[in-house]
Amino acid sequence: xxxxxxxxxxxxxxxxxxxxxDPWFASIPADLAEALVSLARPRRLAAxxxxxxxxxxxxxxxxxxxxxxxxxxxTEAGKEAILSLAEPPxxxxxxxxxxxxxxxxxxxxxxxxxxxxxxxxxxxxxxxxHPAWWRxxxxxxxxxxxxxxxxxxxLAMLPADSRLARRLLLLSQRHDQPRGAQTGPxxxxxxxxxxxxxxxxxxxxxxxxxxTLQDQGVVQVAYGRIEVRxxxxxxxxxxxxxxxxxxLDHLQMNGPPARA
Amino acid sequence: xxxxxxxxFATLRSDIWFSTLPAELAGWLIEHGHIRKLSHxxxxxxxxxxxxxxxxxxxxxxxxxxxxxxGKEALLQLVEPPVWFGxxxxxxxxxxxxxxxxxxxxxxxxxSQTVLHDLLRQQPAYWQHFGVLMSFKLRLVFINQESQTLxxxxxxxxxxxxxxxxxxxxxxxxxxxxxKVKQSTLAQMLAMSRQTVNxxxxxxxxxxxxxxxxxxxxxxxxxxLADAAQLNAMERKxxxxxxxxxxxx
Lengths: 260, 249
Hints:
Number of strands of chain A: 11
Distance between the termini of chain A: 13 Å
Structural class of chain A: alpha+beta
Number of domains of chain A: 2
Strand content of chain A: 15-25%
Strand content of chain B: 15-25%
Number of helices of chain A: 11
Shape of chain B: globular
Largest interface: A-B, 55 and 51 residues
Order of helices and strands of chain B: HHEEEEEEHEEHHHHEHHEEHH
CATH superfamily of the largest domain in chain A: Jelly Rolls
CATH topology of the largest domain in chain A: Jelly Rolls
CATH architecture of the largest domain in chain A: Sandwich
Number of helices of chain B: 11
Oligomer: heterodimer
Strand order of the largest sheet of chain A: 1-8-3-6
């Protein structure tokens, strides 16, 4: 455990408590967590404001504190594909930190949003002093690759209802909710249309699947959000493989099995 | 210690990741690697296995795939020289993400996890280089995933061919290049029917972009393939930068 207190910082205590709910952030060494927090600058984004665009030069990593960010790609023809929704307390931006290549996606505030920004130059200077921390940032990216692989395989192999259940399951793990028991309903602030776009499902199919899940008492759909009412049943419908179950356990356990 | 033939050295050096490594790290990997040979159908590892290091493909091809609970196979990709893989578990120590099986005879350079971790304890700055291997992989995953969602089958296939070409030694040079890949493999990787893949290939062939024969796709006009692939802004910038970097000896 790295349960030590953070040093005095301009960040309020509840912000630190929120950050520590992220499985990646909770698993990194305490001194790295402190260093990230001390370098971080708060930023506010109005609804619809962009954090950066695909093709932009890297400018550091971010954590979502409040609201949500839409991570999407747009084709040359102007069609949009939502990759995912980044919600508190998710960290992102590490891909370009490693390879210094342009941003892979557009990132736009989906409603009023607060983020923490750790600027690239400060972060690189920190990593120069503590090069072993590259591994810790790499673990954030490794988790992203694993989740992307699961998404790809689901797209090729699974029927719409399982895919939707899996995505809801992942979105509800990431959300800022008490971890572990998860007794009450978990609210995922996502619209039907957004969920459909993430899964490449038509609006009709998305609606049909959600309606069936609602009839079974698994979810409750409201405007702009989906409540998961029966997590156990959702996990059943998601039909997880052994590896996925382990990854999910890992996300819930709040830490990696192996640490250097 | 691995003893490599001059051809194997050349193969490794043609990789977009390996060619950008500091000389001492590249040399160290070769020095501490050992040669593994697999015969057709043999498994390198299974999904869920504990990690045992990273691998560079020196010859042959490997199928990277997952098997669903009801026994269906999902082919993620075909891995060929000079690609390196296995770095995800190097970082997080979690189990292998896929089954990996030899498709024909295969020669690999394996660098064991323990030896790598010893090196990384002494030279922790090298973690960044292994992270770059992973970031390239993730970028290609995003590219393929998005074209699967947004592009018509023609664009999707052209884009996959373009990036397969660009990650192969042959594609590093300008001019025509040969890709060893069956249409059935492309169909599996793209979740398309064989008929669709064949129809698109015939169209590309008629336009003089590729020439198709059994088990190979010859790219006659890489420029036209890039057009058909409708690369997005990020991909184009990424290519420019990568081309610039590997241009340095």
